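Long-time lurker, first post. I've been practising inverse folding by hand and with some scripts of my own, and I keep getting stuck on stretches where the structure tokens seem ambiguous. Below is the full token string for one chain I'm working on. Before anyone asks, I'm not after the true native sequence, just a reasonable design that respects the backbone. If someone could post their per-position residues I'd love to compare against what I wrote down in my notebook.
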């Protein structure tokens, strides 16, 4: 299939392009390079032997998108492009709503114009807010998000569902990612956060390489087995493969469907630290500090819908994720 990938040079999209190319799909990638580098295209080619078609373009630019896409036959769009820094979204809400929601609406208009009514969207478990129950099924009611980033995901989901409602010819797959970590096993592509990492694994790998002195563990008084926050960490390559499977659903005219992409296992912050230490043989000094505002105690998926309908399940372990995250970091020390 000819697959349009927005946010193509980003962390999750780059791993997905590798899997798609290895499954024989042709890629047309777009990115405005606001949070990634053009080098990623060469790195993908290094892994797969195929250079994806790529355009440096903003999804908010209707005319620019039309000039690239008007004469192309696109079978499906996988829409990754978006701003994702939770803290920044609190201080720049208009920029986040404009880029993420405005950009998605522009993209949908272009897709409609060129006759591509198939889209897979990168959503997040953040739409569940403080989940009504765990493990979280797709039927769990959406919750109150604690930041504008989360609201953009929740609102875009609604835009997509309404678009399908107005014209059922649209096939829409919403993928709610849990906590993606890890990297391609080659160590060639991975996650490269700007500045001080907000998320746990990039912070741990920066402590491991000596760039940061110690990890701050945000709270040990949650109602969890060891008091630290519990999350469903998922290897980015498993996540990428979920998108390949979602294309089959699109091909079968699935209508509008929502899937959790998680492993179903919840691990605490201390579990992650201990696993990282034992797999990589590196000590991670840490200090328990107070809770981070907006954090929840426990968030993990009930992933059986994706297994039943898409034939997808995660296969990588937390050990694999810790090994591959460190392999990437140690090979890419700025
Ligand atoms: P990323 O920042 O690495 O990738 C996003 C890409 O989109 C970047 O390359 C950026 O340059 C590009 N982009 C942003 N705005 C754009 C615009 N207006 N036009 C064109 N390109 C634009 O992030 P990621 O971790 O790979 O996330 C991919 C998607 O998955 C995002 O939508 C993110 O919100 C979502 N998601 C990520 C996580 C996570 O933990 N990484 C969890 C849940 C959902
Ligand atoms: C965060 C975002 C969420 C986003 C998700 C994507 C917030 C409030 N939420 O979720 O919107 O969809 O990333 O992956 O930022 N932790 C520490 N020390 C650290 C960093 C994290 O103890 O330096 C703890 C956190 O308290 C949490 C766990 O590690 O219990 C995971 O944190 P993180 O990686 O930031 O992910 P989430 O909070 O789940």
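-- Answer (accepted) --
I ran through it position by position. Result:
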């Amino acid at each position: 299939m000819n697959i349009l990938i927005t946010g193509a040079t980003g962390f999750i999209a780059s791993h997905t392009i590798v899997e798609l190319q290895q499954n024989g799909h042709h890629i047309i990638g777009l990115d405005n390079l606001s949070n990634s580098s053009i080098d990623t295209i060469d790195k993908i080619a290094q892994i797969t032997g195929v250079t994806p078609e790529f355009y440096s373009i903003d999804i908010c630019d209707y005319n620019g998108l039309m000039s690239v896409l008007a004469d192309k036959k696109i079978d499906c769009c996988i829409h990754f492009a978006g701003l994702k820094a939770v803290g920044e979204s609190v201080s720049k809400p208009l920029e986040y709503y404009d880029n993420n929601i405005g950009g998605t609406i522009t993209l949908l208009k272009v897709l409609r114009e060129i006759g591509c009514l198939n889209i897979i969207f990168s959503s997040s478990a953040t739409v569940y807010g403080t989940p009504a129950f765990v493990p979280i099924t797709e039927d769990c009611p959406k919750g109150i998000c604690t930041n504008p980033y989360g609201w953009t995901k929740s609102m875009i989901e609604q835009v997509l569902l309404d678009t399908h409602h107005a014209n059922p010819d649209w096939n829409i797959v919403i993928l709610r990612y849990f906590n993606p970590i890890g990297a391609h096993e080659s160590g060639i592509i991975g996650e490269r956060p700007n500045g001080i990492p907000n998320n746990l694994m990039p912070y741990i790998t920066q402590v491991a390489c000596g760039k940061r002195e110690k990890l701050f563990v945000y709270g040990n008084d949650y109602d969890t087995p060891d008091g630290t926050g519990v999350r469903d960490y998922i290897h980015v390559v498993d996540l990428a493969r979920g998108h390949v499977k979602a294309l089959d659903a699109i091909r079968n005219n699935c209508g509008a469907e929502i899937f959790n992409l998680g492993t179903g296992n919840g691990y605490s912050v201390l579990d992650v630290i201990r696993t990282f230490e034992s797999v990589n043989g590196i000590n991670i000094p840490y200090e328990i500090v107070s809770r981070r505002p907006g954090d929840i105690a426990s968030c993990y998926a009930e992933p059986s819908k994706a297994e039943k309908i898409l034939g997808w399940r995660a296969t990588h372990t937390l050990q694999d994720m810790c090994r591959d995250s460190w392999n990437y970091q140690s090979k890419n020390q700025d």
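A couple of notes from the structure itself: Residues 86, 124, 126, 149-150, 179, 198-200, 203, 215-218, 229, 231, 269, 292, 294-295 surround uridine-diphosphate-N-acetylglucosamine (ligand 2) (CB under 6 Å). The mean pLDDT is 97. Happy to go over any region you disagree with.
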